[in-house]
Amino acid sequence: xxxxxxxxxxxxxxxxxxxxxxAARLDRDHLDTGAMYRAVTFAALRDGIDVADVAAVAAxxxxxxxxxxxxxxxVDGIDATEAIRSDExxxxxSAVAANSGVRAxxxxxxxxxxxEHGGGVIEGRDIGSIVFPEATLKVYVTASPQVxxxxxxxxxxxxxxxxxxxxxxxxxxxxxxxxxxxxPLRRADDAHLIDTSERTVxxxxxxxxxxxx
Length: 213
Hints:
By secondary structure, the protein is α/β, with parallel strands linked by helices. Helix content is about 50%, strand content about 15%. The longest helix has 18 residues, at about 100-115.
């Protein structure tokens, strides 16, 4: 049976941790679509392309040799798993993610990935609303701004600044993602809302598995 579990949510809400854990529990493959947008951003910056050059970045996304497997991101034959998480990529990825040409190309690749893998657990910001509107199960994870900032701080080792600065950066990213013209961040009408602020990963996974019946 082809099962597609769509897990959406804003930065720091815990969707990557939850998605990986659900995939492991279900013995299904996992796709981090945010890493795909980071890969395009990384490639554009590497090649000296201005991320504001809509046409050039869209063309780069179409020509990109991108492979994603077991958490590894390979761009044009080079392991870029760590490089796509750099501060430079993080600062530029929102502009790339708002590029309609890039989104069209990556949505095509995401749907092809699901066809090739026979389903899976897919995380992102528009999976349940745009990419897989007929997903078997849609989940939208969120958390309080304070918890999200704390998580980002822990992940970065405080390289992103103090908690107030991180929280402000998260709020700015939320505003950008939720107000962009193409595929804005939003909870699909039929998505189950889960607040991860005060819950364990195991508890959340159990709830999602129960939803699948």
